[in-house]
Fold:
Amino acid sequence: MAGLIPQAFIDDLLSRVDIVDVIDKRIKLRKTGKNYSALCPFHTEKSPSFSVEPEKQFYYCFGCGAGGNALGFVMDYERMDFPLAVETLAGDYGLAVPREEGGKDEQTRSESKLILDVLEKSSQFYQKQLRGHPQKARAVDYLKSRGLTGVIAKHFGIGFAPPGWDNLLNAIGVDEAQIELLFKAGLIIKREQDATPGNAADRKNDGQYDRFRDRIIFPIRDSRGRVLGFGGRVLTDEKPKYLNSPETLVYHKANELYGLYEARRSNPKQSRFMIVEGYMDVVALAQNGIDCAVATLGTATNATHLTRLFKIVSEVIYCFDGDQAGRTAAWRGMQATLPILEDGRQVRFLFLPEGEDPDTLVRKIGKDRFTQLMDDATPLADFFFSHLCEDLNPNSIEGKAKLSSLALPLLKQLPKGIYRQLMIDQLARMAGVESRSIEAMMGSAEVAEVQIQNEDEPPPYPMPPEESYSPRGTTKPKKPEAVEKALPRSPGLKAIELLLYKPEVAAVLDKDMELLRENGNQYTDLLLELVELVKQDPTTNTYTMLGHCYGTPLGNQLTQLMKKEKITPLEGISSEFHYLIDSLLSDAQKKQLKKQLMAQLAPRLRSSKTDP
Structure:
């Protein structure tokens, strides 16, 4: 008979999984602010009241009250008992579920948990060496020469692996079991029978030796701060310059990003991330006040990296050297980006001056100027078309044909939506053909005929027209569905939608809104409520505002709005929101003047009616 599942394994499983991934595999989630929403799978509803909080690893439904962690969701959704739900969730992550007899929990803890424990101990050992080893000065001087302080070193957990073959081995490998764990964690190397590195007289442990020796140590942490592996930067002329942990049971370099944990700890409300090339670039940027940098770990940026970042922010910047190698790397990054570039996501490219990297440049020009470079980074669309046009003449017939042949298979990778349509339109303009021709060549089955307003003109915001009738009294035919969706909404409702999408726009609103209280409607009344909510607590997010409105007729309408694609670019939300507020105030002022005028005329009108 199978034994009990150890509690330690269950804890380890829950700490390993991401509730967003678990739920998104089963029901489609949509990002709303820093959380995710969906139609609740546990009761019937027309608008989403089901919310998932990645930070708390918790889900909750405002409609039916269902809530819990990833394991609870699997139990409820799959209608499984507890042991089967654990087996299912563990299977999704390639883990075998251990069993115990008689409650021997400590002996049967999952192997991954034991490896994580020894990695944490090793990280503490390396940090201690940086503070107290007799040869620490070499490491400390190097870090100071790169402009780093003790505060930033502590923030990133930077350490020092002293010279010698078995420093870590002696400190952590107190028995055979610990030595085996050090090996499985990639921290020691078992010597082949005939290999004899160094002087055997200097080695206490003849069978194995430390992987990291005489190097600055950078711990690689996951999103929860657990140490998964290390990167080591040499202090001598030894090669390789950087040495990284090998793949292990807990460390898969293609899935991780260096600095992501530290960036989120520095600023839980990051609005963008910048992908750089190395450990020191990430640390140096953070030292100079730019705490949004992350780095891949010896691999090219892939869809897994980008998906993780886009779950947190809507903008990612690639940072590369401005030489040909840098532009080639940028093009590879762009290709990895296309399949996941959904509407609302933004990718840009920052090319540095020749001979500079983020580490050297930020120390030379400072935070403000470097931030300006990030703000001015090249949009993906501009880089896409300029790169394709490098070796052809886009003004010739042959060049236009070549451009189209190069661009079409790439554009086909974009998810269907507004951004893809705009990229198709741009290619059509450059090729001198109609967008429908490009779509036909791409084999597009769906042609979305949504009219996009000219960005140079302020958008009109009339109320949707009332249904009208022909002279004979027959109802006019309805507009096609695509056009109906493009009809403008009332300015109050549109302002609420923008506020939900970017709550911080209300925090800096300094206009007197009292006119709207007296001369508004149901939308402006709710808008004022939400603005006040944000002003009282600037940390208020989309999730909180939807919860505030949930259960009301307008609340249901708002949750529907949050499911629709956003045509307004993220950077344009603030200006459009303030434009709408000005429009609303102007209309309210006109209504107020009209009321005053009518009040003044009322006595005269009454007098005229009573006069003989």
